[in-house]
Amino acid sequence: MDEVITLEIFDSIATLTLNRPKALNALNREMAEGLNRVFREIERNRSVRCLIITGAGDHFMAGGDIRYFQQCLALPEREREAEVNSVIGIVNDAAAVLRRLPQPAIASIRGNVAGFGMSLVAACDLAIAADNARFTQAYTQIATTPDGGNTFFLPRAVGLKRAAELSLLNRSLDAETALAWGLINKVVANDALETETAGMARRIRQGSVQAMAGVKSLLNASLQNPLEQQLQLEQASFLRCALAADFREGLDAFLEKRRPEFL
Description:
Helices cover 52% and strands 16% of the residues. By secondary structure, the chain is of the alpha/beta class.
């Protein structure tokens, strides 16, 4: 495992840590490649029931590594074009894999979130933030445009006008405003972030794997489908779940007033 990315799996919960704390976990080629690889590993690992993404140190991710891009500027034009194109392609692939994971993904956030960090947060299914978190797009500050699915996920999270305000005016949001805008789900005290994140992940882990994956798939599909097609997908998904053992367990547990024990 690359040092810039660490992955721990315990009790069916995977914790991916962005591990460049001295650089505020800024994204470089090595981290982009690491994210792409780890997301694909988690996609294949059906023993993992939930993914947590967090940052080492005091910050989540301060966007792309400016020093890396400065180094790219020293390359001849064709080499620079090839390098930047390659890295952004890897970043975009990683975002696509993250979104299609059958496992729900939780962003656990403290400190600064900018650039691709915003893309990661918006692409996750759930997001919980410490009260010291601050969110900034920052792309146009360096005269570029978003990547990593940012312009797909962000407007769907906060609305088109607010996404434009964040992207064009580089408005910085504190945690409470990010919560009010719908970018995150919960704000907690900084020293409670790990505990609260673990509690959220345990609730997902205790759920039915098939039902959780089905919900995520349906929500993803709803972003493009007309109502009639979405209704058909809902019907097919409900039927698959109703024929599975977890459905019987869920019904029995409800009637017996106990916690279900899903497979």
